[in-house]
Amino acid sequence: MDRVRLAGLYGVDVTYRPTADTEVPVPEDTIVAVLAALGVDASTHYAVKDAVAAYEQREGNRLLDPCTVLRAGHDTLDAVLARLPRGSGLTVASRTGEPLAAAPTAPGRYALRATTPDGRVSTGDLVVAPERLPGPPERTFGFMAQLYSTLSSRSWGMGDLADLADLAAWSGRTLGAGFVQINPLHAAVPGHPTDPSPYRPSSRRFPDPVYLRVEEVPEYAYLPTGAREQVAGLLAEAAVLRDGVLAKDALIDRDAVWALKARALEVLRAVPLSPGRRAAYADFLAEQGQALDDHATWSALAELHGPDWHAWPPGLRDPRSPQVARARSELLERVDFHAWLTWLTDGQLGAAQRSARDAGMPVGVVHDLAVGVHPAGSDAWSMQDVLAAGISVGAPPDAFNSRGQDWGLPPWRPDALAATGYAPYRDLVARMLRHAGGLRMDHVMGLFRLWWVPQGRPPTEGTYVRYDARAMLGLLALEAYEAGAVVIGEDLGTVEPGVREELADRGVLGTSVLWFERDYSGADPERRPLAPSAWREACLATATTHDLPSTAARLTGEHVGLRHRLGLLGRPLEEEQAEDAAEVAEWIALLGRLGLLPEGPVDEEEVVKAVHRFLARTPARMVGVWLPDTVGDRRPQNLPGTSTEYPNWRLPVAGADGRPVTLEELAASPRLHALAEELRGALATRPTRL
């Protein structure tokens, strides 16, 4: 029982529920391994007793937490005062030190100071989060796109930030779209080949320069003749690469794109910055501080020693070692080159959001925050003190996957985050919102708990570790409030009771996907499709996502055939096809009963329109249109359960015939325009319930 108590003190669950009516005990070895990753020895009875005593003594002596998070209109400082010895004093000041006459109620950051009668003094941060985040200022629709897949006739073989700015400007001005939601643009781990998944990045804090449009860099205009000829040759190679990708059945080759861009940027690097540009770069370096220095240093070291820092010489594995300090000095030019790339990318990210807002978008660009980072990458190297070593994030076994999942991502240590006042987390969120009108939180349930899998164990032998969700949500809410951004939580899959309600109460929008919206209340044993009026308002409503079949593939059943060809079906093909066809028929019947389909026979394009008419009829604050759906694309961008068997994250947007479609062709597509016109009209006539 002592070990159970110790686990509870550190937020480590000792049981879990794969289904609502089943409780499974967590293996003892898992509990010991997870506690060890939290710096706690639970290997013996005596070690457990010592660990419990040490925890209680530490907490008993604590006056203030490094960061206290309150919610405006709900929380007061009474709970903080109650922890202090009788007769203690508690004062609140602004971050610059000016005492405040009254308890703060306005959202913001403050300083706390506690003084006990025996003279002990403790200080800490105080964060007052807004009571609730406002949603978008109006009901709106927008496009959901994987940016790399959205090529224009000017990009270098994959979509880039100039394409994003153009997509936002065109769709906002011409179609009245309110946002563009894109995949994570986090820096990738270089490799041969590079892992193309945007959800397993090297760094979540900094963007990937592969998304740069070289010609948009201001210094491009001042290339001297010889250098201009060099870049012109690279542009010609890029055109060949782009034309190859736009050929049917070709794939996006991120490594080839970066090889060309890197050579061009090396040439551009020789063009001196103007005084104003140099001053702006100096300000950027000062603002980004140690975090950027670490990322640029890791990038320079990876060029020499390979992308996995675990295999570097021992002295370089610690970012604060004397060897790293010496290497940083010796590699100063390469370190500065990578910092410069980050600055250029940041500038083009800002230009894309300005383009969106100038086009009248009420939200603009919605960026995506992946749930974790690659264990070999930049963030894992520089933040070893707050990431759990020997642990991977995943998902427990459930009714859909009896083996569970291991995502290969090291999780935050909740104890280490709390000890730092959540500084790394706050910094990450602030960086993501720097040029965003919205932020999508991948696996938002991770703010509450994550499934930890000890290294060497299968996902079935993991356990949930809990986080201080009130603090995590409060800090997220304050950063979004100050940025004027909406927050969308990806809350699909296994969600603990109460989580969706808490998120909605905070103003965090959920994600509702058509095919999953059924009546699970128990009132309908057949779990029929949910009527539009029964959908939640606080959500982004969509027909599909990057991990699911396109709407055309769903309607035609082609996604079942694809999974059959890849050996991914758990039952005979005929059974899977019959069940899938019945599910689609249910939805089409509902669309017909609601009058969303025209009389008589209908084609696929008409059903896709009806699906989106249905989404517009829900009270959802935001309606997302999967960009490939606008031209009948059959292929998913990512097929879970595959790696080399399917070209995940490497497919350009294509039409129903499989031929890739450029951004210019999308902008001229009658099918896309007709769908957008339907949505714009439907949303204008469906007032919100607020």
Automatic annotation (TrEMBL):
Q: Which reaction does it catalyse?
A: Transfers a segment of a (1->4)-alpha-D-glucan to a new position in an acceptor, which may be glucose or a (1->4)-alpha-D-glucan
Q: Name one GO molecular function term.
A: 4-alpha-glucanotransferase activity
The UniProt record lists the EC number as: 2.4.1.25
Q: Which GO terms describe its biological process?
A: carbohydrate metabolic process
Source domain of life is Bacteria
Keyword terms: Carbohydrate metabolism, Glycosyltransferase, Transferase
Q: Pfam families, per this entry?
A: Glyco_hydro_77 (PF02446)
Q: Does the keyword Glycosyltransferase apply?
A: yes
Q: Which Gene3D superfamilies match?
A: Glycosidases
Q: Which InterPro entries match?
A: GH, Glyco_hydro_77
Q: Which family does it belong to?
A: Belongs to the disproportionating enzyme family.
Indicate what this protein is called per its UniProt record: 4-alpha-glucanotransferase
